[in-house]
Specification:
Elements (H helix, E strand, L loop, with lengths): L5 E4 H14 L4 E5 L9 H6 L4 E3 L4 H13 L3 E7 H7 L1 H10 L5 E5 L17 H6 L5 E3 L4 H11 L6 E4 L4 E3 L14 E4 L4 E5 L4 H13 L4 E5 L2 E3 L3 H10 L2 E9 L4 H12 L4 E7 L9 H7 L4 H19 L1
Length: 321
């Protein structure tokens, strides 16, 4: 495979795309909770000061104000660090947005362990779990710049509440020209028939790099970007699971309640049972360090994922003998 081209942080693509859309849509508003800088919205605020609302460090107010503006017909993006947005503002997300069916676009920035050494207080390893337990809110976790831009553009006319999860790292371009992004439809990054790597967000590029390592060892690995957790692309996951011998899921989230749990539940209920391994952040006091150091500690690297997949695949072959 050719080396992947490095792009921009997904948060930068989000803000660039939002500014372009807002220039031709005066109904598009951004509400932030003292996160104009971290959300890369400084340029937006300077160019369109009448279309940005700053509520300060008050996430509950952020969600409530966003819901009110949406009820008045505005296209609202509520931007705040994922760790605080989905913890401090959870009741308002449940009642003011989801229960009230207001099409607010909640944007969780610096998600997962993007804040690195700031520690557990600033890690959002719970957000996908708590939001999957709330009815009527769709969940999108883009992998690269292409998926992020397409998700923002699709969010404008999305008829339901939506949570968009973004990280800080500059991302590699993963998709070939002509790729088609649809909320709720997984995208295949690599095609393989031995083992499948299912990932979302910033772990997708790690899964793709692991697949390339496996290919060099004669192992054919499928890679799916499961960028949407709700609505979940059950058909793509089941088709893949019926074709491969083993599946490894990988995510920048707790191993409880995220992508891995969603895949495991689907496969068990469908009676499709390839060998399965869930890779993420385990149920323990989280290791503190940079995002890269945390990933290395928990085996979320191309080499570690390739080894995990290879060992899992080997175990299935031993059992078959």
């Amino acid at each position: 495979m050719q080396p992947l081209e490095v792009g921009k942080p997904n948060q930068q693509i989000f803000s660039d795309t939002l500014l372009k859309l807002a220039e031709s849509d005066r109904n598009l508003l951004v509400v932030t909770s003292d996160s104009r800088g971290s959300g890369r919205l400084v340029a937006f605020g300077k160019q369109l000061p009448a279309q940005i609302v700053e509520v300060g460090i008050a996430e509950q107010n952020l969600v409530g104000v966003a819901a009110g503006l949406a009820a008045a017909g505005k296209h609202v993006f509520a931007v705040s660090p994922a760790c605080f947005l989905t913890a401090r503002g959870l009741e308002q997300i449940k009642n003011d947005v989801a229960y009230s069916d207001q099409p607010v676009r909640l944007v969780g920035i610096s998600a997962g362990v993007s804040y690195g050494a700031l520690g557990t207080t600033h890690h959002s390893l719970h957000d996908l779990a708590v939001l999957q337990a709330i009815n009527n809110i769709d969940i999108v976790v883009p992998a690269d710049n292409f998926e992020t831009q397409a998700a923002v553009e699709a969010a404008i006319m999305h008829p339901r509440p939506l949570y968009l999860r973004l990280g800080k790292k500059a991302m590699h371009h993963l998709h070939a020209p002509g790729a088609d992004f649809v909320i709720g439809k997984a995208l295949r990054i690599r095609r393989g028939d031995d083992v499948a790597l299912l990932a979302n967000g910033e772990t997708v590029e790690i899964a793709a790099q692991a697949a390339d390592l496996l290919a060099a060892r004669g192992i054919s690995a499928d890679v799916l970007s499961i960028h949407t957790l709700r609505p979940f692309d059950e058909a793509a996951v089941l088709e893949t699971a019926r074709r491969v011998k083993a599946i490894v899921t990988v995510e920048e989230h707790s191993v409880h309640g995220g992508l891995g749990s969603r895949v495991a539940t689907l496969l068990m209920q469908a009676g499709v049972t390839p060998a399965l391994r869930i890779v993420g952040i385990p149920d323990e006091y989280t290791y503190t360090g940079s995002q890269q150091e945390i990933f290395a500690h928990y085996g979320i690297t191309p080499a570690d994922l390739a080894q995990t997949a290879e060992l899992l695949l080997h175990a299935t072959r031993v059992e078959a003998i």
